[in-house]
């Protein structure tokens, strides 16, 4: 079997993934309460570790390729994979992307939200709203009969109409018994390309959208991805199952 083969999930497996993803959604929702000026990103990490214990789930990222935390916390010009730290304190006007995943009953859940810290500038507020909207457009394209690139096309059209740019160097992914499975799910592309979408596919769709240009780089810590032009970046992610009845957002509360 080709190792790029997309693993289809049965309806029962999709319900197991729903349970894992619902816990991700509940924990992310709880974390919103802790986002305020003066909170450190390590506080969010500690709350998450406790909540994961309480729900009896394994945090998915900790130990993944040596990543040391449960959460990725990416502030302002940080795009993804920012690391929690006691010395990184939120300030009014910041935005923070909180990315979290779990493993439960053999399956992964993965989701991310971007949360404003108090009042943010008009442009940054619009960046966050448009990024959330672009994820919804991508989700609506995740249906049988469409092709994979229809998802990225939907995201990109939404974002570029507002003058923002799509990060190219990082993409979404299939998800199931592994955190990252085929296929890669870009947030850009032409319509009608790539594999045909089928019921049983489960995809993590995760637009990373910049206020400035699309270029990013990885910091010397080996993880933190930042915009090259230091502009703000927003990120939302849902785990989505393709079903005969349309997209089923497993990580929606
Ligand atoms: N949601 C991200 C992803 O799917 C989180 C991975 S962070 C890592 O790639 F630490 F686990 F790599
Ligand atoms: Co992901």
What descriptors fit this protein?
single chain, 253 residues, alpha+beta, Creatine Amidinohydrolase, five-stranded antiparallel sheet, four-stranded antiparallel sheet, 4 helices, 15 strands, 27% helix, 26% strand, binds 2-amino-4-trifluoromethylsulfanyl-butyric acid, binds cobalt (II) ion
Within the CATH hierarchy, at the fold level, what is the topology?
Answer: Creatine Amidinohydrolase
User: What is the CATH level 1 assignment?
Assistant: Alpha Beta
- Hey, roughly how much beta strand do the residues contain? 25-35%
Mean model confidence by pLDDT: 98
Q: Order of strands across the widest beta sheet? A: 8-7-9-14-15
Spatial separation of the terminal alpha carbons: 36 Å
CATH architectural group: Alpha-Beta Complex
Kindly name the structural category.
alpha+beta
CATH superfamily annotation = Creatinase/methionine aminopeptidase superfamily
* CA-atom Rg in angstroms: 17 Å
Ligand inventory reads: 2-amino-4-trifluoromethylsulfanyl-butyric acid, cobalt (II) ion
Shape descriptor reads: globular
- Give the helix tally: 4
SSE order: HHEEEEEHHEEEEEEEEEE
Helix content: 25-40%
Total DSSP E strands = 15
* Tally of separate domains: 1
Low-confidence spans: none
Q: What report would you give on this structure?
A:
This protein is of the alpha+beta class. The protein has one domain (11-246): Alpha-Beta Complex (Creatine Amidinohydrolase). It is 27% helix and 26% strand. The protein has 4 helices and 15 strands. The protein has helices at residues 11-32, 41-54, 122-140, 148-160, and strands at 58-59, 71-75, 78-80, 95-104, 107-116, 165-166, 172-174, 181-185, 202-205, 208-210, 216-218, 225-227, 233-235, 238-243, 246-249. The strands form 4 sheets. It has a 5-stranded antiparallel β-sheet. Strands 1, 2, 4 and 5 form a 4-stranded antiparallel β-sheet that branches. It has a 3-stranded antiparallel β-sheet with strand order 3-12-11, with no helix packed on it. β14 and β15 (246-249) form a beta hairpin. The radius of gyration is 17 Å and the shape is globular. 49% of the residues are buried. The model has no long low-confidence stretch (mean pLDDT 98). The chain binds 2-amino-4-trifluoromethylsulfanyl-butyric acid (MF3) and cobalt (II) ion (CO). The site of cobalt (II) ion has 5 residues, from loops.
């Amino acid at each position: 079997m080709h190792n790029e083969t997309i693993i289809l999930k049965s309806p029962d497996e999709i319900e197991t993934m729903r349970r894992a993803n619902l816990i991700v959604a509940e924990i992310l929702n709880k974390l919103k309460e802790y986002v305020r000026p003066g909170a450190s990103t390590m506080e969010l990490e500690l709350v998450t570790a406790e909540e994961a214990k309480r729900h009896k789930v394994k945090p998915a990222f900790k130990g993944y390729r040596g990543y040391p935390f449960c959460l990725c916390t990416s502030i302002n010009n940080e795009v993804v994979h920012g690391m929690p730290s006691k010395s990184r304190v939120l300030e009014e006007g910041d935005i923070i992307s909180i990315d979290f995943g779990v493993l439960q009953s053999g399956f992964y859940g993965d989701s991310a939200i971007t949360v404003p810290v108090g009042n943010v500038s008009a442009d940054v507020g619009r960046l966050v709203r448009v990024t959330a909207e672009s994820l919804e457009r991508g989700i609506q394209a995740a249906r049988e009969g469409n092709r994979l690139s229809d998802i990225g096309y939907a995201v990109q059209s939404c974002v570029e109409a507002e003058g923002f740019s799509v990060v190219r160097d990082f993409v979404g992914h299939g998800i199931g018994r592994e955190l990252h499975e085929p296929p890669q799910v870009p947030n850009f592309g032409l319509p009608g390309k790539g594999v045909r979408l089928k019921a049983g596919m489960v995809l993590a769709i995760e637009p990373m959208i910049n206020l400035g240009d699309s270029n990013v780089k990885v910091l010397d810590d080996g993880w933190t991805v930042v915009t090259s032009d230091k502009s703000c970046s927003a990120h939302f992610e849902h785990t989505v199952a393709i079903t005969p009845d349309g997209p089923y957002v497993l990580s929606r509360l």
